[in-house]
Write a structure and sequence with these properties.
It is built from 14 helices and 19 strands. α11 runs parallel beside α14.
């Protein structure tokens, strides 16, 4: 608790329950109470972005109404309060990921910027002609394009780990790709279009055996499972706040301190410096060296509250609930004639990507929207995945902790209606 002008300000805190109850969780999310096209909202687009609990909304309102100020350099009370909350959020993320030090947590705009930071800073300094970067066949475009740009600039080569028809990586092919030329491996922990949970510990161990650091795209893993960056021994880990029930426009890049120290700044500007003259600039310490300019202060503080909220419920309990929904959803969708699931890995999270006969996914999404059901349609920024499975796009229902079996039943009824409309 802090105070402004002697008035106590209560920090927003999430509800904590002893037993996981989806209906109680849903009560924390105001948007889920609304009606869309005359029907109760069924939100199944969590892989694109999650909804926000009241605790996060309260935090954003509290910041802007009681302590809105720039951070780090101000001597007045509001600046001190904002700085305290912002750096407190950094400490929460450090504990959430089990990083060694707060300075290993860099605030960025999201997973995409985190990956670009590593490609631009680490890549430009440590990757050169003849070197190789390894990614996988199931990457989001944000973990393909930055490496293509780097390889083109540096004369390096991009290598790709292929996958099988279930959407699982061919690890024997990965073994063949690794060599002394491998300078970095960047892989998605959980595929946003397939739901596949990749064997990242094995990937990291093998990469380290040839001296290559590993970056994990954690955009889809962070909201659905506990992550311990020290246990994984990954060198970099990036995730987005808005997929973790937090605000948009804020995310995190974790990096081992020794690597971050060796990397040049990503951008120049205020707060990333210790001293500036026209002759020379001395850069700031970690993590501020990578945080030029005024950050998304409210977003960072709101992300801290989202971490509190998810931690209070328990990621293990969230994962168990979502796994139960995934099993149920897979079974129900398999009952629909002409439906083809895309992504049937043995180890996966709550992603249900599918095609339905010859109905275009956009048409499926439009019919479902009329029933109040929100899903995602398209290539999901994974066009190479679509090419691998010989399709232009999929319809994708993605699960979150507030979803229920009744909502999956509603999805099935909606798909039945789509079949009727386009029969």
């Amino acid at each position: 608790m802090s105070s402004v002008n002697g008035k106590a300000i209560q920090r927003a805190t999430p509800k904590v329950t002893q037993a996981f109850d989806p209906s109680q969780v849903r009560d924390d999310f105001p948007i889920l109470k609304q009606v869309v096209n005359g029907k109760p909202l069924v939100y199944l687009d969590n892989a694109a972005t999650s909804q926000k609990p009241q605790a996060v909304l309260d935090t954003l309102l509290r910041y802007y109404t009681t302590e809105n100020a720039n951070i780090h350099r101000g001597v007045h009370t509001l600046s001190a309060l904002a700085t305290e909350d912002y750096e407190g959020a950094r400490a929460k993320v450090r504990r959430f990921l089990n990083a060694k030090e707060d300075r290993e947590i860099v605030f960025v705009r999201g997973t995409t910027e985190g990956i670009n930071l590593v490609a631009s800073s680490y890549g430009r300094r440590f990757i050169g002609p003849g070197d190789e970067v390894i990614i996988t066949a199931m990457e989001h475009h944000s973990n393909i394009v930055p490496w293509q740009m780097l390889c083109e600039e540096k004369g390096a080569t991009l290598r790709v780990i292929p996958m099988n028809d279930d959407g699982e990586l061919l690890m024997d092919e990965y073994d063949k790709l690794l060599s002394k030329r491998t300078k970095l491996v960047s892989v998605v922990y959980v595929s946003n279009s397939l739901g596949t949970i990749n064997p990242v510990r094995e990937i990291i161990t093998k990469a380290h055996s040839v001296g290559a650091p590993v970056l994990l795209d954690g955009a889809q893993s962070t909201p659905h499972m506990a992550v311990d960056v020290q246990a994984l021994d990954c060198d970099f880990y990036a995730f987005s706040g808005h997929k973790l029930y937090g605000p948009t426009g804020v995310g995190v890049l974790y990096g081992k301190a020794a690597l971050l120290d060796a990397m040049p700044p990503y951008q120049g500007g205020g707060d990333m410096i210790k001293s500036v003259t026209f002759a020379k600039t001395i850069y700031n310490d970690l993590p501020y060296k990578f945080e030029a300019g005024t950050p998304n202060i409210a977003g960072g503080i709101g992300l801290g509250t989202a971490v509190d909220y998810v931690t209070g419920i328990g990621l293990e309990r969230i994962a168990a609930h979502e796994d139960e929904l995934l099993v149920y959803g897979t079974k129900r969708l398999a009952e629909i004639e002409g439906l083809r699931l895309i992504g049937t890995a043995k180890h996966k999270t709550g992603i249900l990507s599918f095609t339905l006969k010859d109905i275009h996914p956009h048409d499926i999404g439009t019919v479902l929207d009329q029933e109040g059901i929100a899903i995602r349609t398209g290539h999901h920024c994974t066009q190479p995945v679509m090419e691998r499975f010989g399709i232009p796009a999929t319809a994708r229902a993605s699960l979150g902790m507030y979803n229920t079996k009744a909502e999956i039943d509603a999805l099935v009824l909606g798909l039945d209606k789509a079949l009727e409309v386009f029969s």
